[in-house]
UniProtKB/TrEMBL annotation:
Catalyzed reactions: UTP + L-glutamine + ATP + H2O = CTP + L-glutamate + ADP + phosphate + 2 H(+)
Organism annotation: Aphis gossypii
Transmembrane segments: none
Name of this protein: CTP synthase
UniProt KW Nucleotide-binding keyword: yes
Pathway the protein contributes to: Pyrimidine metabolism; CTP biosynthesis via de novo pathway; CTP from UDP: step 2/2
Similarity-based family: Belongs to the CTP synthase family.
GO molecular function: ATP binding; CTP synthase activity; identical protein binding
Function (record text): Catalyzes the ATP-dependent amination of UTP to CTP with either L-glutamine or ammonia as the source of nitrogen.
Keyword ATP-binding belongs to the record: yes
Domain CTP synthase N-terminal: 1-117
Signal peptide interval: none
Pfam family, one: GATase
This protein's UniProt keywords: ATP-binding, Glutamine amidotransferase, Ligase, Nucleotide-binding, Pyrimidine biosynthesis
Length: 442
């Protein structure tokens, strides 16, 4: 109810021409009769109107396609007081990436264009939807599968890694592959689990060993950290493609310090505040007494170090700086950076003050990259995040040829160069700037 009331007030604040209410309702399809029941939709629309909101679009969800679309549309149009063009249908599809195509075919774009007086650049829209169709076809028709082991702390609820899994799907589709994600509980990789629950221990290691690549995402707290460190060690020693994110970078640094620099007491102050060798420390801004509002958040600039050959720098297009989103309280202790780099762990990206390590990369490894930021937050279906794309390429054995070809695909690997250029425009290009932008659509 607070959200409904907020929207009711919001529509008057921004005016009707800048506000569209889309009401999603489920169409019942009883198995016994096979009819499409619209009564629940009619009732919910009446209730919505009683709360002060009038639906501009009625989107009818159903498990399978309606048997008589025109009849259902006519009923809803008559009893819900909306035009037929304002009634859209959306049955369950085998891929979420088909939804925009399905809605466009029903005239959703034209309705929004008229309703919001929102001029659309038709030429760019045609190119954009063409590429979206190709993406959907790639996801449907890809035969080759890349197996990725995700070593996490919250694997019992895989939705906790929804953004990571989508990033992997985007990157895999970009190279005409599918991705099969295996969730590995980090704590099960630890020696302690071998003693208490050997079955879970061996199953976890089997999942890790059967993968083509490994990703260690972020997390908080002490549980499972040692397991993540073991995963980093295994990837480093066995030359398995690896991507660490946030905590993934921190455990990669700790593992390298312990097993390459032989600093046996290397640790993070998040776990051991009195660590003899604190490789990971809390940021000066972080107040241990009060964790609220003390994280380093939001989009921040990362600067690539000059004069260092870097795979991840090439994947980002060779730009001197990039912007990615952050969410962390701990960082690499700058006092150990020089020793780590001399041993082969390069910190190729830093913050603008050059005191915070943002990206690390291992020398002489197929792909061993870790980032302090969260690249999954800025991935897009038609523009996958470079660190994830690098992991997919390395896991499929295509990274070397991709880099040798100046970060372009050969014709047999993915879309042609012309097709790649088709999607190099910004989404803002879809909208033509109207002469009067005073009442810009919200």
């Amino acid at each position: 109810m607070p959200f409904v009331e907020a929207f009711r007030q919001f529509q008057f604040k921004v005016k009707k021409e800048n506000f569209v209410c889309a009401h999603v309702s489920f169409i019942l399809q009883p198995g016994a009769t096979g009819d499409d029941k619209t009564k629940p939709t009619q009732s919910s629309v009446r209730e919505l109107r009683g709360l002060g909101l009038t639906p501009d679009l009625v989107i009818c969800r159903s498990t399978k396609p309606c048997s008589n679309v025109e009849q259902v549309k006519r009923k809803i149009s008559t009893f819900c007081d909306v035009a037929s063009r304002q009634v859209l249908f959306m049955h369950d599809l085998d891929s979420i990436y088909k939804v925009p195509l399905f809605m466009e075919n029903q005239g959703a774009l034209e309705f929004l264009q008229d309703r919001l007086n929102f001029p659309i650049n038709v030429a760019y829209n045609r190119i954009f939807m063409k590429q979206w169709k190709k993406l959907s076809d790639k996801i449907d028709n890809s035969q080759k599968i890349i197996k990725i082991a995700l070593v996490g702390k919250y694997t019992q609820l895989t939705d906790a890694y929804a953004s990571v899994s989508r990033s992997l799907i985007h990157a895999a589709a970009h190279i005409n592959h599918k991705v099969a994600i295996t969730y590995v509980e980090a704590a099960n990789l630890e020696i302690e689990t071998k003693l208490t629950n050997p079955v879970d221990y061996h199953e976890a290691w089997q999942k890790l060993c059967r993968s083509d690549g490994v990703i260690v995402p972020g997390g908080f707290g002490t549980r499972g950290v040692e397991g993540k460190i073991e995963a980093c060690k295994w990837c480093r020693e066995n030359r398995k493609p690896f991507l660490g994110i946030c905590l993934g970078l921190q455990v990669a640094v700790i593992e390298f310090a312990r097993n390459v620099l032989h600093l046996e007491n290397a640790d993070t102050t998040e776990i051991n505040s009195k660590a003899k060798d604190p490789l990971i420390i809390e940021m000066p801004e972080h107040c241990p007494e009060n964790k609220g509002g003390t994280m380093r958040l939001g989009k921040r600039t990362t600067i690539f170090k000059k004069g260092i050959s870097s795979v991840i720098h090439k994947l980002y297009g060779g730009f001197e700086t990039i912007e990615e989103r952050h969410r962390h309280r701990y960082e690499v202790n700058i006092e150990y950076v020089e020793r780590l780099e001399k041993a082969g762990l390069k910190f190729v990206g830093t913050d603008t003050e050059k005191v915070r390590m943002e990206i690390c990369e291992l020398d002489d490894h197929p792909y061993y990259v870790a980032t302090q930021f969260h690249p999954e937050y800025l991935t897009r279906p038609l523009k996958p995040s470079p660190p994830f794309l690098g992991l997919m390429l390395a896991s499929s054995g295509k990274l070397k040829s991709y880099l040798n070809n100046e970060c372009r695909f050969t014709p047999d690997e993915s879309c042609s160069e012309d097709e790649s250029n088709d999607i190099s425009f910004k989404l803002q290009d879809l909208v033509m700037t109207p002469p009067n932008t005073k009442n810009k659509p919200v």
